[in-house]
Amino acid sequence: MGLRERKKAKTMAAIQMNALRLFRELGYNATTVEQIAEAAEISPSTFFRYFATKEDVVIRDNYDPLLIASFESQPPGLTPLQAIRNAMVSGTANLSAEELATISERNRLIMSVPELRAGMLNNLTGTLQVITEMVAKRTGCMADDPAVHALAGAVIGVNISVMLYYAEHPEADFAKLLDEALARLEAGLPL
């Protein structure tokens, strides 16, 4: 990442961190964009350069590009699901304790505010498309192949279940939960 990208990522993280703090202190609905901007020491117009809405500050993350890069670096002999599992687990295993705490807090907030749950679904639809395109490219299948969509949808379903569980059990090991859930999917979901 170049200097400009690092600066943007740092500003985005500062906005999100201040927003989460204000949501904890004042409540989601009572917190305004202006309050978030003031706490992050930016103007409201700068806030809107990073986030389209107040909902977006909770829902948006920068994990899709990291997932793509990690997926594309997986060995060619792996199945698409094995490559996705390795990419997702390696990405989460490298998260700091602070990043994991933020993920847990964001998930709890998303689950408690109806408009955020709806926004999360929209965000996950975008991630579903990213996974679909990654798998299609790796396998040589068409992106509109129903089997490719089914695999991507199953991965998103696993991700949602892990997010929900982790929101309620922040003491759990997120990377381990994700790895175990994807392993179950890979094994055909035995119970």
From TrEMBL:
Residue ranges: DNA binding: 32-51
Keyword Transit peptide on entry: no
PROSITE patterns in the cross-refs: HTH_TETR_2
InterPro entries: Homeodomain-like_sf, HTH-type_TetR-like_transc_reg, HTH_TetR, MftR_C
Keywords recorded for this protein, A-Z: DNA-binding, Membrane, Transcription, Transcription regulation, Transmembrane, Transmembrane helix
Entry's transmembrane regions: 147-167
Domain HTH tetR-type, residue spans: 9-69
Protein name: TetR family transcriptional regulator
